[in-house]
Request: fold
Amino acid sequence: MELKGDKKNNVDEIKGKYTKKQANDLKKKLFAEYRNIWETAGTEEREAAFAFADEYKSFLDMGKTERECVILSVEAFEEIGFSDIDSVKVLKPGMKVYKSIKGKGFIAAVLGKNPISEGMNILGAHIDSPRLDLKPSPVYEDSEMVFLKTHYYGGIKKYQWVAIPLAIHGIVVRKDGSVLTVSIGDKEDDPVFTVTDLLPHLGQEQMTKKATEVIKGEDLNVLIGGIPLDNDDVSQKYKLSVLNILNETYGITEKDLVSAEIEIVPAYKAKDVGLDRSFIGAYGQDDRVCAFTALAAIADQEKPDKTVVCILTDKEEIGSEGNSSAQSKLYENFLVEIYSKSNGSYDELGYRKCIAASRMLSADVTNGFDPTFASVSDPKNASYCGKGICLEKYTGSRGKSGASDANSEFFASVVRILDSKNIPWQTGELGKIDAGGGGTICKFMANMGMEVLDCGVAVLAMHSPFEVTSKIDVYYTYLAYKAFIENA
Ligand code: MN
Ligand code: MN
Reply:
């Protein structure tokens, strides 16, 4: 409908015509208001949110790396009837299949009743998180102590990673090709590791530095030992002693570490935060909060109308490059297989049209408005903890650079679904214009031709070793994802 400006406002009509009640009713009708869900949720919803948070916290405790998240997803999904897509020749409605993507990404689908040509309803999140990776030659001895050299992964504030307990997770492929899984620091009796910081007594010069230089990348050295090998004739006997422990315990040598994927992550468990336990504090919530809620939404599906898919990607935090990232063809191979095994055969144009008819929520976290750092946000266009899933039309930086700007028609259709199910949502931007920016996997999926909208949970202290989310947001994000895949 065309908007015409030809109707003149009658000043007398506007002035004084409305009673207080009428004015309030009018406001309710015309304003977009986003209320805190704690104010509206009943006992049942609160209890459901708390119970859901407990499950989510144990997922975070068990899944501290992308590989661990894939193992958890495969185990959980096999238990509820999903099988590897390679083992299935023909796909029929209600069938459940998955694929591990190099052990670092995951994709799963529940086949719908409707023809595959109607497209798929997809949830996509990422399961890699910022951390410290080991350098290829990490072990060294200095001043009769032994350390690991690290190379940070993703966007971190380096000063946040010192003076906290750290754990070592990952894999080492031995000379004979066998794979060793490493996880030290999270069990009650495990030792932990740490990057030391300078004492304030001698920190005068350090404290005058810029935050980017207070702790430099080359300062992120992890303390791992301090007892020498019992022999005075050998040099580097402290390092030798540590390598000896590694060899006796795991059968590995220094050379095996060159190709290893070892991640240094915080050693503590996810915790309730607040006297009222309203928040969850944990490492890796970006983006495992969206991964967990997406997995939960898919796990609920038995025989959906449309085929529903969950994609959990790797390498998002470093730009989504490589064969486990959102740009990898391996995820698309799975979609091609879904199409072909549903359709009976592969037909390229048919597949492409199926993707064009598909809809996806790019499930990734956004910045939660923090009153302590209010100056980086536009309060009228910020996401708030407690107000539910945040729908973001675009991400990017500067003039929306790098954003996949969702189409109005699709965005509005997602809003219609959530509104019809009474699922509260909010909207916002990451922060103020030109304050910085960020991206998600949204654009890579949109490039394939499907409709994609960014949305996710608001997080405080994002990318820190202790990120904070609201329990009510986590639960309602799960409900939103479920509503989307069942109704889009
Ligand atoms: Mn993210
Ligand atoms: Mn991130």
